[in-house]
Amino acid sequence: MKNLVEKLKINQLARPMTEGEVANTYPLSILSKWDRFRKKDYDQNLLNVPKSYPQIYVHIPFCSSGCSYCFYDTNVGKSVEEQKRYTDNLKKEMDLRTDKISSSVSCGASIYFGGGTPTRLNKNLLGELIDYVSQSFPLQNEGSFTVETSPETCTAEKVELLLQKGVNRISMGAQTLEDRLLKKLGRAHSSQQSLDAIKRLRESGIAIFNMDLIYGLPSQTESSFLSDVRTLVRKGVPEFTLYHLRINPSAHLRDYENDLEKQLSMFANARDFLIDARYSQTRPLHFVKKDYLAKSKKYKSAPTSDQRNNQRKGFVLGFGSSAVSQIGDYLFKNKQGLIKYSLAVESKKIPGEKQFKLSKRDNEARCLIQNLTQKGKLDIKEYQKRFGNLTVEVEGKLTKIRKLGFVESKERNKLKLTDEGWICADMIERYFYP
Fold first, then answer.
1. pTM, rounded to two decimals
2. Which one is the CATH code of 22-298: 3.30.70.270, 3.40.50.10320, 3.80.30.20, 3.50.50.60?
3. Contact at 8 Å (CB) between 69 and 325?
4. Are 377 and 369 in contact (CB under 8 A)?
5. How far is it, in rounded angstroms, from Cα 185 to Cα 405?
């Protein structure tokens, strides 16, 4: 692992995250370069929304506690009245947008409630909101409906509600099974609550559920992280997302220094164990038990503007504070913060704050990233059908990572990530940012 770290550092593939890098998804990773929101551009592009929305995202910014590593738009300890004001404004925002879209546009392929912690909402408010979203954007047949949760809010009552409302996938952030680390992170749950919630989900009949874990935490050991993974596999978790601790300047843990070698070793060991336990690595951080692969493909994870398979399928409508929409070649980000968002919507204004127009170079980069580092393979001929010959810059980068042993070509004009490439795929992804 030491040689891999040296290789990454020498070739400048290992670098700290910047403050704007709230996600490893370009161009969300460069928010500082976005333009201010222009309603004229938004209105014009909204006319281009296809007859069925591929993806709907709803942001719920409420949490039980403030986590020391978190840099997302979240709020702790809000009252039911404050929650109601927010959910009412979500409905108003949906009305503002759908008024501008043709009435023939009425369905979506997936709905995703993220946050924050959506199940932190009052049960009645959560049920009413799900009903409103489902009526506004009815799912196509076999569509995916995901709701994020946390162990302390994944109660029997909430799980029963979600199933009644048609939710078929739940994603839970356990992060670690070490109570001492949970306390350091400011989490509101215990390891036993995580195990109880898993048992509850397994017995509920939910189609599939995901468990988030973080590695590289302060004082976390390689053996303790692997022990967490082993325990959760024994408990029957069908889907894992393994995140490394992201050190962002806006988070409370901003002064903590990651040990890159230790972090990569943690992931590599967990990856080996999961593959031996009959899990497939479907994306860089994502593992699915082979018995659940078909369900995982049907009930997808977080929304993304998909640039795979040489197709421009990037239509995402995001609602709520800080939510991002993609309509064609434009991305629009909502105002961040409850007050700014609420005041805009209550004034009957689209709550836009920033926008970004994707250039040809941006789309090339997104296609490369989402194929090579998300899907694990790149068909160069298919890429060239859309964008033409590889630019000198792109060809040079592909040649470099191939020489470094991160990709290989066993078939002409087709590249695949190697084992080392999968281990550091997120770093390779950022290497291809324009």
1. 0.91
2. 3.80.30.20
3. no
4. no
5. 36
